[in-house]
Amino acid sequence: MSLSATDVAVIGAGPVGCVAAIALARRGSRVTLLDATPVGKRLAGEWLHPAAVRLLNELGVPLPPSSSRESARGFVVYPEDGSDPIELAYPDGRSGLTCEHHVLVAWLRGVAGGTPGLVIRTDVRVTRVVDQTVHCLRQFGESETLSAPLIVGADGRGSVARRSLGLPDGREAVSMMASVRLTGVRLPFEGFGHVCLGGPGPVVITRIAPDAVRICLDIPPSNDRDFRSSPTLIHRYEAAVPASLRPAFREAMTHDTIEWAANQRRPRRDFGRPGLALVGDAAGHCHPLTATGMTTGFLDVDQLAKSRSFEDYRRHRTSRSLGPELLAEALHRLFSRSDPASLALRQSVYSTWRRNARERERTMRLLSGDDVGLFSFGQSFLSAAGGAATRRGGLFATGLAPWLGWLGRSVAPRVLARGVSFL
Questions:
Q1: CA 400 to chain CA centroid, nearest Å
Q2: Cα–Cα distance for residue pair 33/297, rounded to 1 Å
């Protein structure tokens, strides 16, 4: 068994782990980044909100040449009733970034490899963490340990670091995601992500490269064995896809490989312990509809690098990640349900977004992580509920009681458990 030591050991060299290693190394720490997984193509995050791009700029991390800020100025929502799309732009003319996931990972690993004080180890697999020691296996089964005063668990949903803390897995299945990649097409609203309703679940369309667009179909839990077949997916989702993209959508669904991923949620209640901090999906994650995953992880990293203690980090991120987390849950719930209450709420949200620029801005500030106040989320939700009740003749007549119950079950326990401020 070989022994080594470093100031910081970062487990996981995905986007969040790479940024964590770079941020901590640039603050003067000796950092070792551990990940035995090679860069490979898989269906994962490809959208960064403006706050994440701002952090990369502050760290002096250049953006991948194939990434695009012109493709991430906000979102356009296509209502299921065929009415005019609703544009939700980032405030102040800002933009995020889109990039194919494997391209972003390879690029960030390259930047990390050239950062002074940072060593990348891709020849070891982390098996467990005991106290301040990371236990690894090298090729051919040779064991190795690495000790560090700070260990960062950035190893995603199935985090070894999280398991080593004895925390419950806590993941809940939400839906499945099917994706195809289109080339040679133009989006109806170039520069924006498209969220299209009218199928069994939302359809999300984004430009991920200068010549490539990704279409993701959110597939609800179903016992229908035929649901995963291409003809069934085309039949059930085609009407939700903008008309100009339907021929390319049919062609890709029929002849190209469909990529699949499981959508899960795990409330962000646990951030580790002193000496072992969890960041990104290891701490918790929500449905990818709002594309907040990587941005949330980057903001975790930023706060961890700035915090003087683990408790400072835990308290800050416990409070400031709850608003975007609840917004993601609420929007997926709202956009994927067809009961009368959800339909009434959806119409109220559409109406509010169309007539109220301030509410559009509030939504996008919550979405991007700039406004993290629980009070802002509550205001938006109650405004929509009030509009739905007015349209349908009262909260209980509308059937909104289950929605209000969801809000109480989702918010109250987290506020009590986390000590979260409403401001």
A1: 28
A2: 16
- Specify burial of residue 308 (Cβ count, 10 A radius: 0-12, 13-18, 19+): exposed
Torsion sign across C-alpha atoms 392, 397, 401, 402: negative
**Architecture per CATH, 172-264:** 2-Layer Sandwich (3.30)
Selected residue with higher pLDDT from 420 and 207: 207
pLDDT, the chain, mean: 87
Beta bridge partners of 277: 152, 272
What's residue 345's pLDDT? 84
Q: Letter for the amino acid at 2?
A: S
2-64+100-170+266-318, CATH topology level: FAD/NAD(P)-binding domain (3.50.50)
DSSP reduced 3-state for 180:
strand
Q: Record the pTM.
A: 0.91
Q: What is the pLDDT of residues 46-69, one digit of tens each?
A: 999 999 999 999 999 999 998 888
Tell me the one-letter amino acid at 322.
L
The phi and psi torsions of 2 (rounded to 5 degrees) equal -95, 145
Where does CATH 3.30.70 sit in the chain?
172-264
Pairwise CA distance, residues 309 & 314, whole Å = 9
Could you tell me the two tokens for 6? 């470093």
pLDDT digits (tens, 9 = 90+) for 288-311: 998 999 999 999 999 999 999 999
- Does pLDDT of 393 surpass 60? no
Q: Is the CB of residue 372 less than 8 Å from the CB of residue 321?
A: yes
Q: Which helix (H) or strand (E) holds 252?
A: helix 246-255
CATH 3.50.50.60 residue ranges for the chain: 2-64+100-170+266-318
- What whole-number distance in Å separates Cα of residue 293 and Cα of residue 44? 10
Q: Examine the pLDDT at 124 and tell me if it is beyond 50.
A: yes
Q: What is the pLDDT averaged over residues 18-32?
A: 97
